[in-house]
Write a structure and sequence with these properties.
Number of helices: 9
Helix content: 25-40%
Mean pLDDT: 92
Largest sheet: 5 strands, antiparallel
Strand order of the largest sheet: 10-9-8-11-12
Low-confidence stretches: none
Structural class: alpha+beta
Shape: globular
Strand content: 15-25%
Distance between the termini: 27 Å
């Protein structure tokens, strides 16, 4: 499906975000797959001297396997834009918006994509009273992989109001996004950029042993069962694919993205909500994008090459347009 020449590809991984271990797993998987397909690969563990390191190795393209800040929020993207180096996944503006859950709502909801209502709250205020009726969800505004998410229920052990010494994201972040809790089933759909345009792949249902698809459930083997394709009605599957593709396009994602859903089946179509769109989805052995690609007959190495090819097409278009 790809017709790439043999390239020198720098795989950027690691960094200092909460998701560093996941990024290292993603990056190593990508590096090995690209080497197996004949490319020269340089592994770069992100640090403060990363620009000098990239300039030194002078790759044809950077595969951005970073997760979280600063690899997913536009910082690295802006640096690579200034350096004129092609890179995978979404660009600066898309990354700035998609990492911010409130900005993502502002972008997607006007386009008919249903998302839970919510508002930004100061963590200190949570200890005086609830921002909305329980149950509700608290999550950092600018983190991925369900880092620091808490579900506050009437029966929970956080206290009422939430106790300052209760372990939760209010101890790490000054502000949080509060959203109503959407009961039901957890699902996700990936999008990949093909030469002819982006395409939504499939819908996977995530059945977790913990009851919530949090960081541990995502990256601990045996904690989550992936059902691909999800055993859901055709019209719900089609809606998920439609919303995932629309989110990819509206946000301006590139290479690949993954959109996460909750579905309250008692409410039918009205119970389906987009939670977020991830512009740097994981590429670990447990990750969902490679799994959905395999379902469609695209192996892991080919998927990595497709993401690289999308980056090169985009860079070529920017250069032609005079802004790259």
């Amino acid at each position: 499906m790809t017709d790439l020449p043999k390239l020198h590809i720098a795989v950027l991984m690691g960094g200092w975000a909460n998701e560093r271990p996941v990024s290292l797993m993603s990056g190593e998987g990508v590096a090995k797959a690209l080497e197996a397909r004949g490319h020269r690969v340089t592994r770069i563990d992100m640090d403060r001297q990363v620009a000098a390191r990239i300039a030194e190795v002078a790759p044809d393209v950077v595969f951005n396997a970073l997760h979280g800040v600063p690899g997913e929020d536009g910082t690295v993207q802006g640096m690579l834009d200034l350096m004129g180096v092609p890179y995978t996944h979404s660009g600066l503006a898309t990354s700035v918006i998609a990492i911010d859950k409130q900005l993502t709502k502002n972008a997607l909801v006007p386009h008919g994509i249903p998302m839970p209502g919510g508002r930004i709250v100061k963590s200190a205020d949570l200890h005086q009273g609830d921002p909305m009726a329980r149950p509700y969800v608290l999550k950092p505004v600018n983190e991925g992989s369900s880092v620091g998410v808490a579900i506050v229920t009437a029966e929970g052990n956080y206290g009422n109001p939430i106790a300052p010494d209760a372990k939760g994201p209010w101890q790490e972040f000054a502000e949080l996004l509060a959203e109503p809790y959407i009961k039901g089933r957890e699902m996700t759909a990936a999008v990949i950029d093909f030469p002819e345009g982006p395409r939504a792949l499939a819908v996977t249902e995530l059945k977790t042993k913990s009851g919530f698809y949090d960081f541990d459930a995502k990256y601990t083997e045996g904690m989550t069962e992936h059902v691909c394709p999800a055993e859901i009605p055709d019209h719900i599957r089609d809606l998920c694919l439609e919303y995932a593709l629309k989110a990819h396009k509206v946000l301006g994602c590139r290479g690949t993205s993954r959109t996460d859903f909750r579905w309250d089946e008692e409410q039918g179509e009205g119970g389906l909500f987009v939670l977020e769109t991830n512009t740097q989805p994981g590429m670990t052995p447990l990750s969902l994008v490679p799994e959905q690609a395999r379902y469609l007959g695209i192996d892991y190495g080919e998927l990595c090459e497709m993401i690289v090819a999308a980056a090169l097409r985009d860079h070529k278009s920017k250069v032609r347009g005079g802004d790259g």
